[in-house]
Write a structure and sequence with these properties.
The protein is an alpha+beta fold and 364 residues long. It has helices at 2-87, 98-248, 358-363, and strands spanning 250-258, 263-266, 269-277, 282-290, 295-303, 308-310, 319-326, 330-338, 355-356. A hairpin with a 2-residue loop joins strand 2 and strand 3 (269-277). The longest helix has 151 residues, at 98-248. The two termini are 120 Å apart.
């Protein structure tokens, strides 16, 4: 967050500084353009001056040639005069031609004078052109110097402003960097503290984990022992439940007996009804035969819905005989006997009735 706050004013100040530098660059470009224009004008003026100088040299060469002609003519005239004087005595008619020659020489002199006048005019023009060229050069030089001075001043001003801006920015940035460094130092110290705390917490966690592993190992051993004991208890309980289930497992067999007729109810057990009392709904006399054991159980005045309970020698679980209806011709009821494999016998003899032998039954 602090770095973002530092970058925001830096960006604004840098934009302002860039705008000022661009403005100064535009002004410098304009000054350089003015200097280039003045330099171009000076170049054109120099070209004009060189052209005038070339023309002047050309006229001077022409004038020198003309003076050479005049000198030659003068020498010729002197020679002719000397020769004339020499031959004047013999050629008197030549003196008549001297005025024509004088006129010719006069014309030549006039032409020379005209040429000198023209040269003087040209010299005056050249002097004026030189003065104008000098003034133009002075003005161009002054303008160039002004432009240079202005550009130099602007460059110095830009340099000074840039240095000042850089100094201010550098000082501000150093201040901000000092704050950031101090903040980083504090954060670094805080990080070191946090790292030390984390290392301490990690060591404590490792110790706690090791202790928990040891305690958990002991508890697991105890749990395994308790689980083993529980499994043993469960196995014993299951055996007890199986034994109880086997003891409680009972099957029901319905029967309908006729008087004086023996009928097998289940394997090894048969029953005979000898006399009935319809009025009181009782079996007055009868017996139950346990065929494998060779025993007989006597039935006397056994009413309906009154269970007759007895045991066999092979199984400790009880048998029940219940009459539900008694008629003149016989009786109807059901036998409840143990189901599943037999359980070791723990009782002997009948609970109801008598244990009779076969001879006793026959005697009766």
């Amino acid at each position: 967050m602090e770095n973002q706050e530092m970058q925001t004013p830096l960006t604004g100040q840098w934009n302002d500084f860039s705008k000022r530098v661009q403005q100064l660059s535009v002004e410098s470009a304009r000054a350089l353009e003015s200097a280039e224009q003045a330099r171009s004008e000076a170049t054109h003026a120099r070209f004009d001056a060189e052209a005038c100088t070339a023309k002047l040299h050309s006229h001077r060469r022409s004038l020198a040639g003309l003076w050479s002609v005049v000198a030659v003519v003068a020498l010729a005239l002197g020679g002719v005069t000397w020769y004339g004087y020499r031959t004047a005595q013999r050629h008197d008619n030549w003196f008549a031609k001297l005025p024509a020659w004088e006129q010719t020489l006069q014309g030549i002199g006039d032409r020379i004078n005209a040429t000198e006048t023209k040269l003087g005019t040209w010299a005056g023009d050249w002097k004026g052109a030189g003065e104008r060229l000098g003034k133009l050069e002075k003005r161009v030089t002054a303008n160039v110097q002004l432009v240079r001075n202005y550009a130099k001043e602007q460059a110095n001003e830009v340099h000074r402003q840039v240095l000042m801006e850089l100094d201010n920015r550098t000082e501000w940035m150093q201040t901000r960097l000092s704050r950031v460094e101090s903040s980083q130092e504090s954060q670094r110290a805080h990080i070191v503290e946090v790292q030390e705390e984390v290392a301490q917490v990690r060591r404590e966690m490792h110790q706690q984990i090791a202790q928990l592993e040891r305690e958990t190992g002991r508890e697991l051993d105890g749990v395994h022992q308790r689980a083993t004991a529980t499994r043993n208890d469960v196995a014993a309980t299951r055996n007890d439940l199986d034994r109880m289930t086997a003891q409680l497992s009972r099957d029901r067999v319905d029967f309908e007996l006729a008087r004086n007729r023996s009928q097998e109810l289940v394997a090894g057990i048969s029953m005979t009804v000898k006399d009935t009392n319809v009025r009181y709904q009782r079996v007055e006399e009868g017996w139950v035969q346990l065929v494998p054991e060779g025993r007989f159980l006597w039935i006397r005045s056994q009413g309906i819905q009154q269970p007759m309970i007895f045991y066999s020698q092979r199984d400790s679980r009880p048998y029940e005989i219940v009459f539900t209806r008694v008629s003149r011709d016989g009786a109807i009821g059901y036998l409840v006997h143990p189901g599943g494999p037999p359980v070791a016998s723990g009782a002997s003899g009948p609970l109801v009735g008598e244990d009779l032998s076969a001879s006793a039954i026959e005697a009766r």
